[in-house]
Design brief:
By secondary structure, the chain is an alpha+beta fold. It contains 10 helices and 7 strands. A 5-stranded mixed beta sheet has the order 2-1-5-3-4. A hairpin with a 2-residue loop joins strand 3 and strand 4. Bound molecules: iron/sulfur cluster (2 copies) and FE2/S2 (inorganic) cluster. One of its GO terms (molecular function) is 4 iron, 4 sulfur cluster binding.
């Protein structure tokens, strides 16, 4: 006998919506995205869902399963409670376009607000040298697949649209942290203080290190422990550095 699952899927658009219930066949080893595809093939051909790789690498199938932000293609049916309806909803922090598809352009706007790597002026490409431990440290952050599950789950913006203008979210604070700890980044020489911008422009102070972002990251990046907390510590160190304090008082900026 083939197993059946009950799916409660949010259907609607920016004007409103409702839950629709479906009975869908389940086969051994399947993930939630397999059942969503079966649903489209058999009962709901107009159901909108975004996906691409079905391998946890493109970051496009983000949605909420039983209220938790997850990748549809990496959530095994066997990991969900059997004999209970499975609720699938669009990401809550972003505007709905249709059904399970949301407008994630907030994240692209925030990405553009973080100035990129500034190459050292005295070195040419090919002359850059880094310690392996510095490479390893940023390698972790480079695993990000930009699924924006961390952005969706962060309570600073999840139910607080009003905070979005001032807060970049964990994914982009992590980007600031990565650049700030990059040994070759020449931001300071170029007059850019990444620690100050983290606090003043990207909203680092809103983060109260709850670690919810880390818990939902499908790449198991330790966003809070390895990026946000060290960045907060460097911001505090800089603020209470007596030389920085004196420099600010007399209108100088220390090159640190
Ligand atoms: S640790 Fe900070 S960025 Fe991450 S979810 Fe909590 S408040 Fe948001
Ligand atoms: S840090 Fe993790 S949860 Fe956030 S966008 Fe990147 S991969 Fe997704
Ligand atoms: S379809 Fe690419 S991450 Fe799920």
């Amino acid at each position: 006998m083939t197993d059946q699952a009950t799916f409660r899927v949010w259907r609607g658009d920016s004007t409103g919506g409702r839950f629709e219930s479906y009975q869908v066949e389940v086969h051994e080893g399947e993930v939630v995205l397999d059942l969503v595809h079966r649903l489209q093939a058999t009962q709901a051909p107009d159901l909108a869902v975004r996906w691409n790789c079905k391998a946890g690498k493109c970051g496009s199938c983000s949605a909420e399963i039983n209220g938790r932000p997850r990748l549809l293609c990496m959530t095994r049916m066997s990991a969900l409670p059997p004999d209970e309806p499975i609720t699938i909803t669009p990401l809550r922090a972003f505007p709905v376009i249709r059904d399970l598809v949301t407008d994630v352009s907030f994240n692209y706007a925030k990405a553009r607000e973080v100035p990129g790597f500034i190459p050292p002026p005295d070195l040419k490409p090919g002359e850059y040298r880094m310690q392996q431990e510095d490479v390893d440290r940023s390698q972790e952050f480079r695993k990000c697949i930009e699924c924006f599950l961390c952005q969706d789950t962060c309570h600073v913006v999840r139910d607080h649209e009003e905070n979005k203008a001032a807060f970049a979210g964990p994914r982009f604070l992590m980007r600031v942290a990565e650049l700030d700890m990059h040994p070759l980044d020449a931001a300071t020489e170029a007059g850019l203080d990444r620690k100050a911008t983290a606090q003043e422009q990207h909203g680092l102070g809103y983060c109260n290190i709850t670690k919810c972002c880390t818990e939902v990251c499908p790449e198991q990046i330790k966003i809070t422990d390895n990026a946000l907390i060290p960045l907060k510590e460097r911001v505090v160190d800089r603020k209470y550095d007596p030389l920085v304090w004196l420099g600010n008082r007399i209108g100088l900026r220390r090159k640190d």
